UniProtKB/TrEMBL annotation:
This is Protein kinase domain-containing protein. It comes from the Eukaryota. Transmembrane segments: none annotated. ATP binds at D14. Residues 1-122 form the Protein kinase domain. It holds the Pfam family Pkinase. The keyword Ubl conjugation does not apply. PROSITE patterns: PROTEIN_KINASE_DOM. InterPro entries: Aur-like (IPR030616), Kinase-like_dom_sf (IPR011009), Prot_kinase_dom (IPR000719). Gene3D superfamilies: Transferase(Phosphotransferase) domain 1. Keywords: ATP-binding, Kinase, Nucleotide-binding, Serine/threonine-protein kinase, Transferase. One of its GO terms (molecular function) is protein serine/threonine kinase activity.
Length: 201
């Protein structure tokens, strides 16, 4: 849901799950590599979940792959719950600091977005970002005409991207298996004053 134009400007799309709320949400959604610990543990989540995703995306932009990648879903879940990250030797040290502060197991300890914008690594990239944004702002659309949609093509694309109805249940079963294995290690990283972050049995 992140679009990149020819000027390297990012656009965020698809806000179908967005909501204004003062309470923790329990909706389960997302792609395996980008799930936050609180989403996996089903303890409820708020806007700090999106900060976790920013950390995952930053790592992926710089390395070319997600930080918790594996062909085995159980291993992916275990890596996320342990926040097990390997940084390549050429990963910029300031960016390592930023990623670690974004990918905190404790949601409330993740770096707020306003502080992210003031982080030394982000400030060092602002020249390039400002140039890209300015270029995008002055760009003229190529056409004002609405595209002609082909219903048969849309149906064909939808059929080619089925959603398995049992995927969520399978993930939860895998989470339960992983929790039994990694619970002692995970609890070492969970603040005792935040009982809502304890793993569910």
């Amino acid at each position: 849901n992140i679009l990149v134009n020819h000027e390297d400007v990012l656009k965020i799309a698809d806000f179908g799950w967005a909501a204004y709320t003062d309470v923790l949400r329990t909706t389960f959604c997302g792609t395996m590599d980008y799930l936050s610990p609180e989403m996996i543990k089903a303890t409820g989540h708020d806007h700090n979940l999106d900060i976790w995703t920013v950390g995952v995306l930053l790592y992926e932009f710089l390395v070319g792959r997600p930080p918790f990648q594996s062909t085995n879903h159980t291993i992916v879940i275990e890596k996320i719950l342990m926040c097990s990250i390997n940084f390549p030797a050429n990963f910029p040290p300031p960016a390592i600091d930023l990623v670690k502060r974004l990918l905190s197991l404790e949601p409330k300890l993740r770096l707020p977005l306003e502080d992210v914008l003031r982080h030394p690594w982000v400030l060092g990239q602002q020249g390039y970002a400002a140039e890209a944004v300015a270029s995008a702002a002055t760009a003229q659309p190529q056409s004002q005409q609405q595209p002609q949609l082909q219903p048969q093509l849309l149906v064909q694309q939808a059929v080619q991207q089925p959603v398995h109805p049992q995927m969520q249940q399978q993930i939860y079963q895998q989470v339960q298996q992983v929790q039994q294995h990694v619970q002692p290690q995970v609890q070492q990283h969970v603040q005792p004053q935040h009982p809502q972050m304890q793993l569910q049995q």
